[in-house]
Automatic annotation (TrEMBL):
Keywords in alphabetical order: Lipid biosynthesis, Lipid metabolism, Membrane, Oxidoreductase, Transmembrane, Transmembrane helix
Domain 3-oxo-5-alpha-steroid 4-dehydrogenase C-terminal: 159-306
Protein species of origin: Aspergillus minisclerotigenes
Keyword flag Signal: no
Family membership noted in the UniProt record: Belongs to the steroid 5-alpha reductase family.
Protein's name in the database: 3-oxo-5-alpha-steroid 4-dehydrogenase-domain-containing protein
Cellular component, GO annotation: membrane
Any Pfam family: Steroid_dh
GO molecular function: oxidoreductase activity, acting on the CH-CH group of donors
Chief location: membrane
Membrane protein topology class: Multi-pass membrane protein
InterPro entries, A to Z: 3-oxo-5_a-steroid_4-DH_C, SRD5A/TECR
Subcellular location(s) per record: Membrane
Amino acid sequence: MILVTIRVAIHPRGKPIKSLSQKVRIDPHNSTEELYDVLAQMSGLSIFRLRITKKSDGILVARSKETTIEEAGVKDMDVITVKDLGPQISWRAVFITEYLGPVFIPGLFLFQLRPYLYSNQGTIPEPSRFQLLLCVLLTIHFVKREYESIFVHRFSNATMPARKIVLNSGYYCVMSCNMAYWAFRPDATPSNPVLCCAGLVLFAFGELANLNTHFVLRDLRRPGTPERGVPYGFGFGVVTCPNYLFEIIAWIGIWFVSGLSWSILIFIIIGSVQMAIWARKKEHRYRKEFGDKYKVKRFVMLPGIY
């Protein structure tokens, strides 16, 4: 067996990993996951806290059972950079937690908290049928997200920084409270029947199409590995990320049912901007990862627009 010497350089950002040796000898035919295991044992840290990149070009050395160190482009006497990502938490746990608040917030604002939130408005009428319907749609949407987080999604990375659970959960709770407060006000303008029916159609199509896209993405990735196949299926021939497109369609449906509430429109705009950034990055990643196998997309999220 040929052994290569890889010089390990500590990433200058963050705290240095004191117990990590400056050099390690390892078989180039070993998997990159074994390289992570060796460095984790040396450092006393979980493999999920480590991020390894090639210093020459900054490219990530992904942790994989299938890819060898040689195939990852790490050669004899190359320098790799190891960074401690800090305390980690599973992606699944973050997703489940961040959507939990929005599952209950609409119902709480519409019923239990209604007398207290709008006490300055005199006699508070019962929620309108449009508000009841809106509450149902919001709850269905986030219950669906919980279902997908538990049973559908497969993640390329097992963990993310633990602090994200506070940031993500805080964002969804604040935005959900803002939407519920303004949309469920006793003096909120109700949606007209035509707009409401259109909203229901958009919501049903968007949610079902989004769920289908998530099933497609799940089946492209083998359990327990970051490797995936080329995405294909309904919507993928038009944009890079049809799941984002269908998500926006579903939320436009909710917006229509709400009577064009500005608070829901703000949530749509903020979410769309963030998804557009993710979609552009994903298109670049697909081109790099799949090469000629991938059909380059002109639009990443919104057909004819972006």
